[in-house]
Design brief:
It is a multi-pass membrane protein. It comes from Kocuria rhizophila (strain ATCC 9341 / DSM 348 / NBRC 103217 / DC2201). This protein is an alpha+beta fold. It has two domains: about 260 residues, Beta Polymerase, domain 2; about 60 residues. It has ten helices and nine strands. The strands form two sheets. The protein has a seven-stranded mixed sheet, sandwiched between helices. Strand 4 and strand 5 form a beta hairpin. The longest helix is centred in the C-terminal third of the chain and has 74 residues. The N and C termini lie far apart (about 80 Å).
Length: about 350
């Protein structure tokens, strides 16, 4: 079984901890019947089932008992969904993407949680290691007033916790951007690769956050129709404010990385031009010395052909004259190249 935590709450307090889905169904029905049969009323009855990567059979069992819509069930089985809220009758299907910044690898881990909320139940299905659901459950169990708000209260707590967890991720990404800016002007290697890796992480994070604003706005439109508690409405609007702040910060980070890419491209081009200029200067020097050495070698190669009928072959001053000529040619070429600043 993939059940992580499972409990039934009555009047804001935990009353049962079922060990299987079948036991949950039985105990929940018993709690509801007891609540309906109590003439004084006994508050909200709620089952909260927490699952981690359940099997298709477990999801279908939940769908059959709680009458979950087949489209939502299909999305849950396939996973890899964008943030959204879909209402099917009395059941609300919500997908949210938690995020965790890993300090060891300086990367962002994006998770996925599917939430079904109905009249007497909350089902949380997570497809990632880190989600914050356990912390939310402890928080809700410690806040009886919030738990008495029923499934909407639990959904608010989940949204609030996941959005709050976005801010440490933003801090980690800001540090990464600062490090990239320092590395850019320090001329460190592999800066371009780090910029593109960070841009990809921010884009993935942004895709998990940006849709939440429109999703929650559509959710707010049903406040009156579905009788959402007034205090809960205020809290949910505060969550929306945080979502908007996170989205705005991510947009600013994307703009900063775009600027960093432009600066990196400019600096890379400048370094390439500088290297080309240095190489050109080296080629000038090599070419100059090659010419200086090549000119005397022409004279030497001519007299090295050993023909009998050659001018000045038997002249006593021919050899010194040839040496002087070679040195003179080399000296003239050296002066010319020095004047042109090739040497």
């Amino acid at each position: 079984m993939s059940i992580v935590e499972n409990a039934i709450y009555r009047n804001g307090r935990k009353v049962e901890t079922p060990r299987s889905l079948e036991e949950t169904y039985t105990l929940l029905k018993r709690a509801i019947d007891r609540s309906e049969g109590d003439e004084h009323g006994s508050g909200t009855v709620l089952a909260w089932i927490g699952l981690y990567r359940p099997t298709p059979e477990e999801i279908r069992s939940l769908a059959e008992h709680f009458q979950l819509h087949e489209l939502a069930v299909e999305d849950t089985i396939q996973a890899h969904q964008r943030p959204k809220m879909e209402r099917y009758g009395q059941t609300l299907f919500t997908v949210i993407r938690p995020a965790v910044y890993q300090d060891e690898t300086e990367t962002v881990e994006i998770g996925e949680i599917h939430i079904f909320t109905g009249p007497n139940f909350v089902i949380t299905i997570r497809h990632s290691e880190s989600s914050g659901v356990s912390r939310v459950r402890k928080r809700v169990e410690a806040d009886q007033e919030l738990l008495c708000l029923g499934p909407d209260g639990v959904l608010y707590a989940l949204l609030d916790q996941i959005v709050d967890d976005y801010f440490p991720v933003l801090s980690g990404l800001e540090n990464d951007i600062d490090e990239i800016e320092d590395a850019l002007f320090a001329g460190q290697p592999n800066v371009s690769q780090r910029i593109y890796e960070l841009a990809r992480e921010i884009n993935d994070f942004h895709r998990g956050v940006a849709p939440l604003s429109d999703v929650m706005q559509r959710y707010f439109a049903g406040f009156t129709k579905y009788g959402t508690h007034q205090e809960l409405q205020h809290r949910l609007r505060d969550v929306l404010d945080h979502v908007i702040a996170v989205s705005g910060k991510l947009e600013s980070m994307r703009a900063s990385l775009t600027d960093a890419m432009s600066v990196d491209s400019t600096l890379t081009t400048a370094r390439q031009n500088e290297a080309a200029m240095v190489q050109n200067e080296q080629m000038k020097k090599i070419s100059s010395w090659a010419a200086i050495l090549f000119a005397p070698s022409i004279v030497g190669s001519i007299y090295g052909m050993n023909f009998k009928a050659m001018p000045e072959l038997e002249w006593a001053l021919g050899y010194p004259m040839a040496l002087v000529l070679m040195l003179l040619v080399g000296l003239v070429l050296y002066v010319v190249f020095k004047v042109k600043d090739w040497l």
